[in-house]
Amino acid sequence: MERVIEKLVRELEPLISSVVRDEFIVATETAFDCIFDGTSKFYPWKTPTNIPKKFKIGVIVGSSGSGKSTLIKNFGKEEQPIWDSSKSVISHFESPEDGINKLSSVGFNSIPSWYKPYHVLSNGEKFRADLARKLKSNAVIDEYTSVVDRTVAKAASVALSRFVKNNDVENVVLCTCHRDIVDWLEPDWVIDTDTGELLDGFFLSDPKSLLKYIEQTMVVGECLKTIII
What we know:
By secondary structure, this protein is an alpha/beta fold. The chain has eight helices and eight strands, in the order ββαββααααβαβαββα. The chain has helices spanning about 25-30, 70, 95-105, 110-115, 125-135, 150-165, 180-185, 205-215; strands spanning about 5, 15-20, 40, 55-60, 140, 170-175, 190, 195-200. It has a six-stranded mixed beta sheet. The protein starts with a strand and ends in a 12-residue tail after the last helix.
């Protein structure tokens, strides 16, 4: 069960952005009976003090605009992989074994797509290929599972969690607005930017439901088409 470890506090200095007050703003002020001076302020959350120095997976979850992306910057800079359009997706890893393990760990199981260049992949495949390249110690990943359907998101989260916990990988921080995948990631800690709380990682109340979910979503592999994770 989840347990509150710490209540978050906000920074004293706000982030400020300003825009020109033009006819578009004036028109919307009239339409919606509001007043806007052209300046927006946001007080971001401070990083909790009780996060351990070493952990496997941490998750920042909350609705859009709640300060997730600002907070995750305190854990590091997200890597943006560079892809060579003349090479296959699988050719971008340290070794074939590394590529197989990492692509499988994020639910990217279509082997024919491994042989394609990155730019011809679907948006969902691109997301998972990028995720596989980013997957290492101290990785910071924003907008986790935002562009994949929820079944894929849950299956990928189970596989990613298993990979991180079974390998020499630590301090991976994921940021998401989707609460449905948190249980499947089984994180060590969770920051909820909606409630302003640092929580113990919370887990499925019934471990059997995890096995049942994996069985229901597992695809029967075909030679050179899919692999089972």
